[in-house]
Amino acid sequence: MIEVRGLTHRYGGGESGADSGDAGGSVSDGDAGGSVSDGDAGGSTALREVSLRIPDGEFLVIAGANGSGKSTLVRQFNGLLTPDEGEVLVDGTPVGDDLVAARTRVGMVFQEPRDCFVAATVARDVAFGPENLGLPRDEIDRRVERALAAVNMAGRGDERIDRLSGGEQERVAVAGALAMEPSHLVLDEPFTGLDEPARESVLARLIELNRGGTGVVVVTHDLRDVLEHADRLVVLADGEVAVDVPPAAAVDALGDLPVRRPERC
Ligand SMILES: Nc1ncnc2c1ncn2[C@@H]1O[C@H](COP(=O)(O)OP(=O)(O)OP(=O)(O)O)[C@@H](O)[C@H]1O
Ligand SMILES: [Mg+2]
Asked: Where is the composition biased (Low complexity) (predicted)?
């Protein structure tokens, strides 16, 4: 379980500043991206008192306009960012109290996986996380094999990452997170830059993983085909939770929010 309690995050400035409260409330203002910047001296409030509980095994979709705070939120789940106010607990323990536990339980896949690879070949990259846990070699090999199989990359461990397609690289990034055997897999815009077959392949892997019991949190602008597999949709607007509904209620709840609609809801 990931539990977010009253999370507020500000960038820059350092001071809480005079938060202008409702001044930034509408999502439709600033249609170029709905920046959350609210004019507090030298900084911007990216999240405002966000609370959220993500049970184990849940498939959660987080949507929202550019700048609505999605990345800022999920980066707190394993301590990559620390909140100014509030806290995040993973299985009841505040993330900051045990970063290793949080990073073992919550696997994170970033928007640009190619910036995050640490090795030249597939298997060596996927092994990196378990190696850092200090696991024995045979356990590392077992995890790498399982993780690659889970993303349909079995037997391709010796291939060079820079020769893979975008979709394959995304799947290697997912395998790298899976090798930590996390209870939640969090993916920030996993479909960006992928063509349709690659997008479908990544999504299919995520659905399978979720059926196998892994919690999946997908941050995306693009709700096509995703919502029907999700347990829940959260939409952030201006650093706040604007929508928190089961997918069946999503179309009504989306209103004028700037996300790409599911086609089949
Ligand atoms: N490193 C940073 N320094 C200063 N401000 C930042 C930084 N990162 C994000 N912000 C600001 O915080 C707000 C939330 O940004 P965030 O990246 O979390 O949004 P997002 O919903 O992930 O957007 P996108 O859809 O573009 O990825 C925005 O106003 C953004 O400009
Ligand atoms: Mg983002």
From this structure: 17-39
